[in-house]
């Protein structure tokens, strides 16, 4: 068929035909793409549909991956809203192609990595029982259940974290023939490995606290508990004399909150300039919404990644409203989205569609996860927010929380409590720590300035 016959076909709406002719004359659309579009319109006609009624399955059923990719490129020029629907279809087709290729690949034999710890199933029986008891208490506390055990209760995050150091102790005991007990000698041998690896004081402090929790639950001898408490106090003093890795990064961090916010807006603009069917456009919208929301509502990763549309985060008439119970401290948190952040969230929901489709999209995604790779059915993994931050800024997501607290402690110390409330800190000591650190930096800066002022005077005096 000639170009005139194709564009004159009743399958082609006048507006679509004129746009296709314009792109052909400009050299943007090829004859092959035009024929592919015509073939797709025939495909839709057989299903009793027109172009504006295209659904995800219509694109997925159109043919192999290469054909849908070519169609998506043509649609991105003539019907970008329909092209946006091609992204999930392309994702399915690529996944299917990958599965077929994987089935015929030769297995990769990986070198075994040197393990520093033993998994719980390899621990002594008494150690496994102690761990299960701690886990059960933590689960009961999290679910507000009444347990039969009146022992000390720790957060599930603490119990999961101590599994690593206890595993290291189990391996150290096995390697050095120290038996199945937590003794002063066993802890001392483990400390030597810390020194060999040049473990930082703050890390040694955290690991010692975890060992103390486990040793107490295990019923270790009193001399072991006293030894661990002494170690904890010593590492605490040592940690106070040294800057933490987090402080080192913050002191050299080249961005402020304004820079981070502008980056989110740049990513949103970048998404708008990328063809809607490309994964790059979706990733840019995801990153923009995550970074913008992190500035607006600096929540922990465990809360940010699990927001559901119409549940924890709701689209109201003028903006978005976020309200949820924080995972770590069960405190209620609520905040409205800033106008620019609302725009980023709208763009993520629309996923390349026209703004008039927002209401329909909100109904379709009701109860689904905001940050998701499969249309909201499953949330992204809990570490995804920090992965985004590392990709764009070189640090994890939690640094924005530190930036907020440091900013308020420095600019408006009387209202620093508001910043702590904003980031969900439940501890007054945490807020005071930020104020003390800021005051310490200010004092050091003042002293340094005085020294610099005195230096020229000292030089002149020495010359005389």
In sequence order, what are the helices and strands, one letter per element?
HHHHHHHHHHHHHHHHEEEHHHHHH
Overall pLDDT, averaged? 82
Q: Can you identify the CATH class of the largest domain?
A: Mainly Alpha
CATH topology term of the largest domain:
hpI Integrase, Chain A
Q: What class would the helix/strand composition place it in?
A: mainly alpha
Known CATH architecture of the largest domain: Orthogonal Bundle
Rg for CA atoms? 30 Å
Total number of domains: 3
Beta-strand proportion: under 5%
Distance between the termini: 98 Å
Low-confidence stretches: 441-447, 456-464
Note the total helix count: 22
Number of strands: 3
GO molecular function, one term: DNA binding
InterPro entries: DNA_brk_join_enz (IPR011010)
How are the secondary structure elements laid out?
Blueprint: H1 3-7, H2 14-25, H3 31-46, H4 56-60, H5 65-78, H6 80-84, H7 86-104, H8 125-142, H9 156-176, H10 184-196, H11 201-218, H12 222-241, H13 245-252, H14 257-273, H15 279-296, H16 301-304, E1 313-315, E2 320-325, E3 332-336, H17 339-350, H18 358-364, H19 384-393, H20 399-411, H21 416-423, H22 428-463
In short:
With 464 residues, the protein is mainly α. Helices cover 64% and strands 3% of the residues.
Report on this structure.
The chain has 464 residues and is mainly alpha-helical. The protein has three domains: 3-103; 120-242, no CATH class; 257-398, Intergrase catalytic core (hpI Integrase, Chain A). The protein has helices spanning 3-7, 14-25, 31-46, 56-60, 65-78, 80-84, 86-104, 125-142, 156-176, 184-196, 201-218, 222-241, 245-252, 257-273, 279-296, 301-304, 339-350, 358-364, 384-393, 399-411, 416-423, 428-463; strands at residues 313-315, 320-325, 332-336. The chain has a three-stranded antiparallel sheet with strand order 1-2-3, with no helix packed on it. Strand 1 (313-315) and strand 2 form a beta hairpin. Helix 3 (31-46) packs across helix 5 (65-78), helix 5 (65-78) packs antiparallel against helix 7 (86-104) and helix 9 (156-176) crosses helix 11. The protein is elongated, with a radius of gyration of 30 Å. Residues 441-447 and 456-464 have low confidence and may be disordered.
């Amino acid at each position: 068929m000639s170009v005139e016959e194709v564009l004159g076909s009743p399958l082609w709406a006048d507006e679509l035909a004129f746009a296709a002719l314009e792109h052909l004359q400009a050299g943007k659309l090829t004859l092959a793409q035009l024929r592919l579009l015509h073939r797709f319109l025939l495909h839709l006609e057989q299903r009793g549909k027109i172009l504006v009624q295209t659904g995800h399955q219509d694109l997925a059923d159109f043919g192999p991956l290469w054909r849908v990719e070519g169609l998506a490129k043509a649609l991105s020029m003539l019907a970008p809203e329909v092209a946006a629907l091609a992204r999930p279809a392309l994702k399915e087709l690529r996944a299917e192609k990958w599965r077929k290729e994987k089935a015929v690949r030769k297995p990769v034999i990986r070198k075994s990595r040197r393990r520093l710890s033993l998994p719980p199933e390899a621990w002594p029986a008494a150690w496994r029982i102690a761990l299960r008891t701690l886990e059960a208490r933590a689960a009961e506390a999290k679910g507000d259940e009444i347990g039969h055990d009146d022992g000390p209760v720790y957060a599930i995050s603490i119990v999961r974290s101590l599994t690593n150091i206890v595993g290291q102790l189990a391996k150290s005991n096995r390697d050095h023939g120290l038996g199945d007990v937590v003794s002063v000698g066993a802890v001392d041998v483990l400390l030597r490995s810390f020194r060999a690896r040049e473990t930082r004081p703050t890390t040694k402090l955290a690991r010692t606290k975890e060992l103390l929790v486990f040793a107490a639950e295990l019923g270790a001898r009193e001399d072991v508990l006293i030894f661990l408490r002494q170690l904890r106090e010593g590492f605490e003093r040592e940690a106070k004399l040294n800057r933490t890795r987090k402080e080192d990064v913050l002191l050299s961090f080249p961005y402020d909150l304004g820079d981070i916010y502008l980056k989110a807006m740049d990513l949103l603009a970048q998404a708008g300039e990328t063809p809607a069917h490309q994964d790059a456009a979706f990733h840019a919208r995801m990153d923009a919404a995550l970074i913008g929301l992190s500035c607006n509502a600096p929540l922990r990763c465990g809360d940010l990644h699990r927001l559901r549309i119409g549940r924890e985060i709701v689209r109201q008439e003028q903006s978005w409203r976020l309200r949820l119970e924080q995972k770590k401290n069960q405190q209620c948190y609520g905040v409205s989205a800033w106008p620019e952040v609302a725009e980023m969230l709208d763009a993520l929901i629309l996923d390349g569609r026209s703004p008039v489709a927002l209401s329909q999209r909100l109904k379709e995604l009701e109860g689904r996860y905001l940050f998701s790779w499969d249309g909201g059915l499953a949330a992204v993994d809990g570490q995804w927010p920090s992965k985004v931050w590392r990709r764009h800024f070189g640090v994890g997501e939690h640094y924005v929380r530190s930036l907020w607290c440091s900013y308020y402690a420095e600019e408006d110390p009387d209202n620093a409590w508001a910043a702590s409330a904003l980031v969900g800190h439940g501890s007054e000591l945490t807020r005071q720590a930020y104020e003390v650190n800021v005051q310490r930096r200010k004092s050091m800066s003042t002293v340094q300035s005085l020294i610099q002022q005195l230096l020229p005077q000292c030089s002149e005096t020495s010359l005389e």
